[in-house]
Design brief:
It is built from 8 helices and no strands. The protein is an all-alpha fold and about 140 residues long. The protein is flat, with a radius of gyration of 18 Å.
Length: about 140
């Protein structure tokens, strides 16, 4: 998002503060409504996403104790969210190197460190490899 937020002016501090995985998923393709202000669009998407989180948390805090329900079986929802985001970005992006690096590093670290300890090594390895591929990724982006 550095490229998108670089010249965001007065919106930049809030855009950085409000960046979540959902906001990233919506804004990472760089597309904005035709004729609109891209920075204002990114600001509004970020603000709405944050307001959904805040309102959802407040409502959950208020209503949770009086509306008890079983959460059995809901653990798949985060996995489904990330799979859906991954597939959408795979289909809309011409460059699959970051996705393949992420998958490969995650699987390798899962095998090496086990299910309880793979996340931090995987994130470090992904970061390292993407930094190494950074020049190639930028060159690919310029060609498009």
């Amino acid at each position: 998002m550095i490229r998108h937020y670089k010249n965001a002016g007065r919106y930049k501090p809030y855009l950085i503060f409000a960046l979540t995985d959902e906001t990233y998923s919506l804004l990472s393709d760089g597309k904005t409504p035709e004729g609109g202000d891209p920075d204002l669009y990114r600001f509004l998407v970020s603000a709405f996403n944050q307001s959904y989180w805040v309102c959802g948390c407040v409502l959950g805090n208020w209503l949770g104790p009086i509306l008890p329900f079983s959460t059995k079986g809901i653990e798949f929802s985060m996995t489904a969210l990330f799979v859906a985001s991954f597939v959408e970005q795979w289909l809309t992006s011409a460059d699959h190197i970051p996705a393949l690096v992420g998958l490969g590093c995650t699987l390798l670290c899962l095998l090496l460190f086990g299910a309880q300890n793979f996340l931090i090594p995987a994130m470090l390895l992904i970061t390292l490899l993407l930094l190494l591929f950074q020049k190639r990724l930028k060159a690919e982006e310029v060609r498009r």
